[in-house]
Write a structure and sequence with these properties.
The complex is a heterodimer of chains A (about 280) and B (about 280). Chain A is an all-alpha fold. Chain A has a single domain (about 50-280), classed as MetI-like (MetI-like fold, Orthogonal Bundle). Chain A is about 75% helix and about 0% strand. Chain A has 13 helices and two strands; from the N terminus they run H-E-E-H-H-H-H-H-H-H-H-H-H-H-H. The longest helix of chain A has about 30 residues, at about 55-85. By secondary structure, chain B is mainly α. Chain B has two domains: about 5-55, no CATH class; about 65-270, MetI-like (MetI-like fold). Chain B contains twelve helices and no strands. Chain B has helices spanning about 5-35, 40, 55-65, 70-100, 105-115, 125-135, 140-165, 170-175, 180-210, 215, 225-230, 240-270. The longest helix of chain B has about 30 residues, at about 70-100. Classes of the chains: A mainly alpha (about 280), B mainly alpha (about 280). At the A-B interface, helix 1, helix 3, helix 4, helix 5 and helix 6 of A face helix 1, helix 4, helix 5, helix 6 and helix 7 of B.
Amino acid sequence: MMAPAVVLLLGWMLVPLVLTLWFSFVKFLPMRGDSIAKGLDWVGFENYVRFFSSSSFWPSVQITVLMVGGVLAICIIFGVLFALLLDQPMWGQGIVRILVIAPFFVMPTVSALVWKNMMMDPVNGLFAHLWRFFGAEPVVWLQDASLSSIIFIVSWQWLPFATLILLTAIQSLDSEQLEASEMDGAHPLQRFAYIVLPHMGRAITIVTLIMTIFLLSIFAEIFVTTGGAFGTRTLTFLIFQRVIDSQNIGLGSAGGVYAIILANIIAIFLMRIVGKNLDQ
Amino acid sequence: MARSVSTQRKIITTAAAWLIGLLIFFPIFWTILTSFKTEAQAISNPPVFFNFDWTLENYAVVQERSDYMRFLWNSVIIAGGSTVLGIIIAVPAAWSMAFVPSAKTKNILLWMLSTKMMPAVGALYPLSLLFVWLNLLDTRFGLIMVLMLSNMPIIVWMLYTYFREIPGEILEASRMDGATLREEIFYILTPMAIPGIASTLLLNFILAWNEAFWTLNLTAAKAAPLTAFIASYSSPEGLFFAKLSAASTMAIAPILILGWFSQKQLVRGLTFGAVK
């Protein structure tokens, strides 16, 4: 009964993987007449070396690390704080939860465009109005602070996810343990550091891993805001440009293999945790 | 939580939580509000909140100018088709893994999850090539297949975690009471499995609706869903904030409503059962 799902997924994984591997070892420039029908020239590791040693490679890795790291830092820190807050008794908790989770359901192209225009537009955006109100010169966000702006937009989209999962983790904390520590005279900060945070540790790890996988392939947010300009070209976007804009399939495929290796290193850690959970 | 808190503290937490909630929600609120303004009001400084002439004109213009309904229909077909097809294929797989687990079950599940980790951009050209060969470029069917496959691991995992919670004792009890296999499936298993299947359906419909890599790269005009429709607004001409807002509101409204219903299942579905 598993066969259809397994066979389909196997094909879905293997066919593109084999083709990408093959293309990464050949010269393949469709615009200059190369085609599979005519046969492609084997070039060994040349594409890998060229992709690795091109002047755009290291900047794109740095930008990727900054973007993923920045979004993760914001989402984990504020996610923990918001989760702690939402766990407290309050009026209208259900409504606040709904308000906080909403951005997660907004499609990436919409959220990127709404932020780009309605909020960050240097002439008519709300931020520009606000800046002028305080007598400051409006910032051209997606040009002068492009990377931080995209980090901000993406964080807005993913903070709900982090908050919701961390909240779920906090709620599963045994409240008797907290009460006991309270009676023993533990300071709230001590309670947080020694009981709550360790309890959330696993959830934080899982949020980090899952988000990293998704953040590494961030595409639409860059595509509609800066198009990879102004220092926002991540590894994913660089590969996209090599394949689509420059139509250098060999080079782009070599980049794709790098991206696959990178994603798999992170995936291994995630699998370990999920796999352990499966045994329980 | 059994601990009692002072009213004063409750007031402070309530205020802080509402403030943060409203701040986070604000861009969505502002978009919906702006969609009812005229273009001039949409960019006015200071911004207008409720004291403007509410108009539905933007919605009419968006529909007329870019045939919004066609994109909406494509989104519905693609997201719906990929989800339903995915569930039809995943239910038997998840079912057998949950009720007849073997030594390999865990490895198969983890392997399925690993396919979700493949960066899409690595498969972009091969897949476009396959699409050209199979004549699938810019077709809804092609996208249905791609989204179905890319979400399959999540669908299988969600169903698996739900099915695993159905107690086996109930089946034994029904068997002892003389239920046939058919009765067992129809009267006992199906009713217990339906909530899980429904949540899976909902969450994956949302994920497919918002997918913005394949939908942007494998469609042109005919099969383009709302993600691509909205992306076409990234190089605007003239005044367009109100129209962008109207288009955005129409693109996110159905999914926001579905999303609010499915928020409880979200955690389970996206953490593969690792956070409960």
